[in-house]
Design goal:
Length: 479
């Protein structure tokens, strides 16, 4: 049978970090005592009217701009009707056929739409459920009800579980850098649903999809999608067909359970919200949203890759703007050193040295200025000191700051080159002291050289250059 290709589309709910709710003046705050942030509007008392939150609209426009969406000149709020205890009006104000934003993209993945809506209240289930006279109960906390949300819907462009999780991380980082949401998956300010199907590789048609609800970490998202892809492939291999349904993934057991067979849009009896006028952003609002955009991660990644950085290193930097700015200053200061080398020092050696020192700060907040890191990298690259000595100097810089050249001088770390003869005699002694290793190297066992290199490094306290030492050992063995 033809191989079955994965097809995935994501729906992401982003809670906006506004001061107040979407349609009333209640304060937004996570983790407060239940039901203290409520009012007649968000509790759906009779006779009240919604008033849209301007800040939420501006934030949504920023998201639209970051995702390169078209913004509708007049988008419409609709009522999405359903009963549930977390939804006191028995409808959610959302957007339907004319969303605020559509036809965008983030990286390679197309954005179908992004619209504004309000969040439901939070349900808390306690005790034993599933029995009429059991001890179980469901409690409702209306603090969350009415929180502004932007729902972002991708086209089904993702082709694997890992790709979906990686793209979701990029989206979170993008929204985080806009400063419009806390994007905290555990607290629910970023929630991801995955739509999953398979189809014969090369086919243009879409298979029947299932929807995985609300995975609260990127790892669970990836595992949930993997599990569902496997289930669908096995089902089809056994001659079955995929049923459209909504599933819950339990990360503990790895199992998928059906929540409900999927409802259709028409079941919700959407109709235009009569209490709200169309949302018509002004030219000025659109321009402000575009101009307020920082250089976003996806753009930065491409710029760094263009500068010669490996994509994974570029990604690490671009998802941490403070460290990225630090890297750029260091790369500018490091004369005669390639940007990618500086990047590896920032994300590798410096990050490790900060961890080692239990430093709470990133590179930017550390005692190592970008200029001194640049000077250090230049010393190592110019073979003025060995890589090992470079790490020693870096540890000193992390602890006390200062000038790398001065630390090299003070600690006596200046490199040993073959020219002064000292290194050659140390190598000769090490070869003599390790006759067995010497024989093995001559017999073609390349790994055996480690013992002699190690002996030289101990003797020179790491001042010698590893490559140089290897070369000298081989030449002394006549290789
Ligand atoms: P629904 O009407 O069920 O909400 P939509 O067409 O609105 O479906 O799409 C919802 C999400 O599901 C989008 O992210 C979309 O890309 C994705 N999607 C749609 N069809 C498929 C499919 N066959 N396989 C995987 N994802 C899909
Ligand atoms: Mg949908
Ligand atoms: Zn309220």
């Amino acid at each position: 049978m033809a191989e079955l290709e994965a097809v995935i589309g994501l729906e992401i709910h982003v809670q906006l970090a506004t001061k107040t709710k979407m349609f009333c003046g209640c304060e937004l705050s996570f983790g407060d005592e239940p039901n203290v942030h409520t009012c007649p509007v968000c509790l759906a008392h009779p006779g009240v009217l919604p008033v849209p939150n301007e800040q939420a609209i501006l934030y949504a426009l920023q998201i639209a701009a970051a995702l390169e969406c078209e913004v509708a000149p007049r988008s419409i709020f609709h009522r999405k009707n359903y009963f549930y205890p977390d939804n006191p009006k028995a409808y959610q104000i959302s957007q339907y056929d004319i969303p605020l934003a559509s036809n965008g993209r983030l990286g390679e993945i197309r954005i179908h739409r992004a619209h504004l809506e309000e969040d439901a209240a939070k349900m808390i289930h306690v005790g034993e459920s599933g029995r009429i006279h059991g001890s179980g109960a469901s409690l409702v906390d209306f603090n969350r009800g009415g929180t502004p949300l932007v729902e972002i819907v991708t086209e089904p462009d993702l082709r694997g579980a890992a790709e979906a999780a990686e793209w979701a991380r990029l989206l979170r980082e993008t929204v985080r850098q806009l400063g419009v949401s806390d994007v905290n998956m555990e607290e629910g300010s970023l929630r991801v649903d995955a739509n999953v199907s398979v189809r014969p590789a090369g086919s243009e048609e879409l298979g029947t999809k299932t929807e995985l609800k609300n995975m609260n970490s990127f790892r669970f998202l990836q595992r949930g999608v993997e599990a569902e892809l496997e289930r669908q492939r096995e089902l089809i291999a056994a001659g079955g067909t995929v049923e459209q349904e909504t599933l819950h993934f339990d990360p503990q057991s790895g199992s998928l359970t059906s929540l409900r067979s999927k409802e259709e849009a028409h079941d919700y009896r959407y109709f235009p919200e009569p209490d709200l006028v169309p949302l018509a952003p002004t030219e000025e609002m659109l321009r402000d949203a575009r101009e307020a955009l920082p250089e976003l991660p996806a753009v930065r990644i491409e710029r760094y890759v263009g500068d010669g950085l490996a994509r994974d290193v570029a990604t690490v930097l671009a998802t941490d703007p403070e460290t990225a700015d630090y890297f750029e200053r260091a790369a500018t200061a490091a004369s005669g050193v390639e940007a990618k080398t500086v990047a590896i020092w920032v994300t590798g050696e410096l990050a490790a040295a900060l961890r080692q020192a239990d430093s709470e700060t990133g590179a930017a907040g550390s005692k190592v200025s970008p200029e001194s890191l640049a000077a250090l990298v230049a010393l190592v690259q110019g073979k003025k000191i060995s890589h090992g000595s470079g790490k020693t100097v870096l540890a000193a810089l992390v602890a006390e700051g200062g000038d790398p050249a001065a630390i090299v001088e003070r600690e006596g770390l200046a490199g040993m080159s073959s020219e002064d003869g000292e290194l050659e005699s140390i190598v000769a002694a090490a070869v003599e002291a390790n006759p067995e290793a010497a024989e093995q190297i001559k017999a073609g066992n390349g790994k055996a050289i480690g013992a002699i290199v190690g002996a030289v490094m101990r003797e020179t306290k790491g001042r010698a250059d590893g490559g140089e030492v290897t070369r000298l050992i081989r030449s002394q063995l006549g290789l």
